[in-house]
Amino acid sequence: MPELPEVETVKETLKKQILNRRIVDVNIYYDNIIEYPTSGEFKKQIINQVIVDIKRRGKWLMFELNDYYLLSHLRMEGRYFLKNKGDSILKHEHVTFVLDNEQELRYLDTRKFGRMHLIKKEEVLNRKPLNELGLEPWDEDLNVSYLKEKYKSKKLPIKTVILDQSIIVGIGNIYADEVLFLSKINPLKKACELNYNDLENIIKNTKITLEKAINAGGTTIRSYESSEGVHGRFQQELLVHSKENSNCVVCGTNILKIKVGGRGTYFCPDCQK
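-> structure tokens emitted (273 positions)
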């Protein structure tokens, strides 16, 4: 599943390819990808808009247009590809944006879980989905006091709570395991029981882990790849995630895999007591 570093990689790749291009037509082959507005209104509003910039908020791609933001969440397996106009449409290419240079930006999604919103610029931060998001990992307001307040009533395991996008955005299952390992926190420990050092370590190691992953182009696991086939190399640097029965790089203990909140979770039972 694309997480923050993968979305950042897609954003940077697309910025090199489609900035300042005008959208001259849109073809929607699966209406449910368009969350807001209706697919008919979506098409009418986006035609003749120019792609001014591409940003990211959490795991959402933000295509800045003249008058709108096109928000795109890749969910499990969404991908963007740039193709020539007239190339045959593949089975799982659900939305195609025809550009003014005879190319098409195509959204491919095997599982059809991805979603798009087209929202006026002045409204985008004040309505769903962006107004439900927490702080970015590098936000100066992300500090121990903030996390302490957010976690104080959370009796769920920290592995579940750290995935809550309304608190900190961008931490998905892979990176949650890595952050908790580096912070020496057991994934089953209740979030409300974390002390000052635990919270400080979560903040520090979230930044470290995500920065490394971004620099490596994200993590490629199973079927995910980013725009134009850019594969993540961070999978080569994973310390615990997907390392079941491997020796811990710190103490040599076997890495265990358990389920926490229905999510596969990897940890070292010695380092993360």
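The mean pLDDT is 92.
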